[in-house]
Structures are given as structure tokens and as C-alpha cells.
Amino acid sequence: MGISGVVSRTLEMYLAHIAFFLNFTLEDKGQAVFRLEKGVIVYICDGRGIRDIYDTDGSSVVAASEPLAVLVNKGTASASEILAGALKDNKRAVLFGEPTFGKGKIQSVFELSDGSGLAVTVARYETPAHIDIDKVGIAPDHPLPTPFPKDAEGFCGCLMDPTSACYLNRVQLFSR
Predict the structure, then answer these.
(1) What GO MF annotations does this protein's record show (predicted)?
(2) pTM to 2 decimal places
(3) Could you tell me the sign of the dihedral formed by the alpha carbons of 38, 170, 33, 103, in that order?
């Protein structure tokens, strides 16, 4: 099931339970079409400090007032890890799952005269809260036991079941 199917199924399940929120997964380098409210997405830093700031203008395909739950794991890396950090630090989403991969370095590869290459770290990523995620990743707000449900129905069922380890009641979700 693609991300649109996951979101669609999740909305159906939660509308039926009168607890509306969006869910998508950034597991294993998942991709999602989503924009943040106006704010910082990521800082690019080098030895002298902040080199670049990437932010958003606030246009959004999902209303900023709608609660959002995001499932992450050790395979959440690259752009999906940056998005997870931006969502968490901007208090836009609640993260569930495992710590993310922890790829926070930016490298350039230089070709040498013998055809080999040399990878040099030229900068690092920092989340909007200035957290360097390299080798540590982003900790979820709610760690889930392993294994945990990875399909939309299982994950949403887990969130709705007050006896489950990943239960999140409406008050917790809407307080973000």
C-alpha cells in the first residue's frame, strides 16, 4: 500500500472513532508529500557554524492544526530523517517507533588521478532545535516495542487500543 493509501486508510479508521489525525511512515527511507507550517526544516553547518538554512514558506497541503503521527525506524535516513527531525522539533508531529538511522554528515567525493575517490565530510545536518543527529539519530517521542505493526491498520489499531504499548489517547495527540 502506498503512502496515499496509508493516509487514506488511517483517516477512515480515525474518522470512524472520532479522533482525526494523519499518519504516514518514514520507515526505510519512506517518502511523503507533506509540507510544514512556516519554519526551519534543517540547518547545514560546517566548521565555522551555520552555512545554510532551509525553511518553508508555510504553504501546506495538510492543515497545520491537524494532528500528525509519524512512524520511524532505523531505516529512516536521508531526506526522510530530515523531515522527521523538522516535524518533531517544530512540534508538528508525534514520532513513534525506533531511533532513526543517524546520517548527519554531508560529504563530497573528489576523484583522484588514479581513478579512485576521496570522500571528505564538508558539513553536517542539524535539526531545527540544533541537534546533531549523526550516529545517534532522532529519538521517537513514543518508542515502540519490536516488532511493532508496520501496516496502517495494525499501527492505527495499536494507537487506539488502550492496552497496547503504543496507545496514544486523544488528549496526548491533540496536545502537540
Answers:
(1) serine-type peptidase activity
(2) 0.68
(3) positive
Number of domain units in the chain: 1
CATH code, 26: 3.90.226.10
Position 44 in a domain: no
Which residues belong to the active site?
A: 78, 103
> 96-140 pLDDT, tens per residue?
888 999 999 999 999 999 999 999 999 999 999 999 999 999 999
The secondary structure element, H or E, covering residue 153 is: helix 152-160
CA-CA-CA-CA dihedral for 126, 132, 137, 141, to nearest 10: -80
Query: Is the distance from CB of 23 to CB of 13 less than 8 angstroms?
Result: no
How far apart, in whole angstroms, are the C-alpha atoms of residue 2 and residue 81?
A: 19
Assess if residue 27 is contained within a domain.
yes
